[in-house]
């Protein structure tokens, strides 16, 4: 429907301005930047959306917590059939991130294994991102993605959950799923739980991260005593308790969920994995190293990541500066983007470090950039979110036989065995990082041995075809 995008965006703009008049100026700049004459405005700092006032976010959380729908009867088991309806925040082909890649790869692997998996994105997506695609269904590699597209955005989160359930209810009636599978965050879980209540279906909630801890790590001014942190944690915990089963990514996350009172027997671990294609020999970069301006004979250390503070990329830059001073230079290849990118570029220039920032690259090109690397780095800080949540990107690198050096935090110990499949070092300590990088980057034989062991571990333990077995128990589908 060609009219749906302008109508929805007009409603969204009005809601944003009514919600917080201070956002009006930035909204006007973003709208002007989309015109044929707005190229310069697109680079303006004023084109960056102003975050929503945390007090209003907190008020919405309170509304969700106060709302008490009737208890949902526990189903005796899933209805017959092998159809799964999965509820997510965003998805391919519009959003390319670790979250959307996991969603897609798991859905594709499950469909290959005989489950009829359909994915449903959050209310308003992708119109809410300014993407003018109002199709209600898009198929990607055989995976059907359904979109819930109202004419206008609801005025509050309770109405958003109800409207989502109304629109998704038509899919439930059409597809007759055996189980509803919600993926972080709590709003997706709320929609699935409401549908489960209406249609008598079991609900699985997949916790891929802890929203409150991610928020805490993004600003030193944030505190665990803040209302937003406490209410988000309470809401996420409530959704875990209300679901029939909980899925998460690793043992550290399982322990955290159990510590909140969720029975251990209903928590299932389905770790991150890779396609079999990632196990193939790395492609020829085809002159990519030269085009990136990386000179021969200097080890290349890098990563693919979203550039947030908790990723610890500043520590990696400082370690590279120490190595340069020692006469053991490395080139940094930093693939990705995010709010910290500008500050990191300035830090590298100030420290005299040769760092190549590529920006985001297409998913299909990631392995060409892997082929340029000698070492893959995961310099995450010791923040709570980093201690708990296991990332996907290092597993992709390990599948290609690239040795991984990571911060020694609990979540990363689950994927890196020191001296066997990689190396661990002290987080937020540039000197420790420099020592470890020098030991590995300047030892080709050691790199090859570690990389080969890492690839074999991924082949045995971490392909999507292997890890999806964990969903069978959570779904209770034979």
From TrEMBL:
Boundaries of every Glycosyltransferase subfamily 4-like N-terminal domain copy: 98-273
Signal peptide limits: none
Glycosyl transferase family domain sequence ranges: 289-457
Entry annotated with the keyword Protease: no
Keyword Transferase in record: yes
Swiss-Prot/TrEMBL keywords: Glycosyltransferase, Transferase
Compositional bias annotation for Pro residues: 68-81
An example Gene Ontology molecular-function term: hexosyltransferase activity
GO biological process, one term: carbohydrate derivative biosynthetic process
Any Pfam family: Glyco_trans_4_4
InterPro entries: Glyco_trans_1, Glyco_trans_4-like_N, Glycosyltransferase_grp1
Bias type Basic and acidic residues, positions: 50-63
Disordered: annotated segments: 43-82
PANTHER family attached to this UniProt entry: SULFOQUINOVOSYL TRANSFERASE SQD2 (PTHR45947:SF3)
Protein name per UniProt: Glycosyltransferase involved in cell wall biosynthesis
Organism: Actinomadura hallensis
């Amino acid at each position: 429907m060609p009219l749906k995008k302008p109508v929805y965006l007009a409603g969204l703009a009005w809601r944003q301005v009514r919600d917080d008049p201070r956002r009006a100026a930035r909204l006007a700049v973003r709208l002007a930047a989309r015109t044929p004459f707005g190229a310069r405005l697109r680079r303006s700092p004023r084109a960056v959306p102003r975050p929503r006032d945390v007090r209003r976010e907190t008020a919405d959380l309170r509304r969700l917590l106060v709302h008490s729908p009737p208890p949902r009867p526990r189903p005796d088991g899933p209805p017959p059939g092998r159809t799964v309806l999965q509820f997510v925040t965003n998805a391919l082909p519009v959003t390319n991130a670790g979250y959307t890649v996991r969603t897609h790869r798991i859905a594709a692997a499950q469909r290959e294994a005989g489950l009829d998996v359909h994915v449903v994105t959050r209310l308003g997506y992708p119109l809410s991102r300014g993407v003018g695609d109002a199709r209600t269904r898009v198929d990607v590699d055989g995976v059907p993605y359904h979109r819930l597209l109202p004419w206008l955005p609801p005025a509050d989160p309770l109405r958003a959950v109800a409207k989502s359930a109304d629109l998704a209810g038509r899919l439930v009636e059409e597809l007759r799923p055996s189980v509803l599978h919600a993926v972080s965050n709590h709003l997706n879980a709320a929609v699935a739980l409401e549908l489960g209540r209406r249609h008598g279906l079991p609900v699985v909630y997949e916790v891929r991260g802890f929203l409150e801890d991610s928020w805490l790590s993004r600003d030193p001014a944030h505190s665990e005593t803040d209302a937003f942190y406490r209410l988000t944690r309470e809401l996420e915990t409530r959704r875990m308790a209300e679901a029939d089963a909980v899925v998460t990514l690793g043992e550290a996350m399982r322990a955290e969920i159990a510590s909140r009172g969720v029975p251990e027997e209903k928590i299932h671990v389905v770790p991150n994995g890779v396609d079999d294609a990632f196990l193939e020999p790395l492609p020829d970069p085809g002159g990519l190293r030269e085009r990136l301006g990386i000179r021969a004979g200097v080890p290349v250390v890098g990563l693919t990541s979203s550039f947030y503070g908790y990723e610890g990329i500043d520590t990696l830059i400082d370690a590279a500066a120490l190595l340069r001073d020692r006469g053991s230079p490395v080139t940094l290849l930093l693939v990705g983007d995010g709010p910290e990118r500008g500050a990191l570029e300035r830090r590298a220039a100030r420290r005299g470090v040769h760092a190549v920032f590529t920006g985001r690259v297409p998913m299909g090109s990631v392995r060409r950039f892997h082929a340029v690397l000698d070492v893959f780095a995961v310099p995450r800080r010791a923040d709570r979110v980093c201690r708990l949540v296991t990332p996907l990107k290092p597993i992709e690198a390990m599948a290609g036989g690239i040795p991984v050096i990571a911060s020694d935090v609990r979540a990363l110990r689950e994927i890196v065995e020191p001296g066997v499949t990689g190396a661990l070092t002290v987080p937020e300590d540039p000197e420790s990082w420099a020592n470890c990088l020098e030991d590995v980057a300047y030892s080709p034989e050691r790199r090859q041995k570690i990389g080969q062991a890492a690839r074999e571990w991924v082949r045995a333990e971490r392909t999507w075809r292997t890890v999806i077995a964990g969903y069978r128990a959570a779904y209770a589908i034979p």
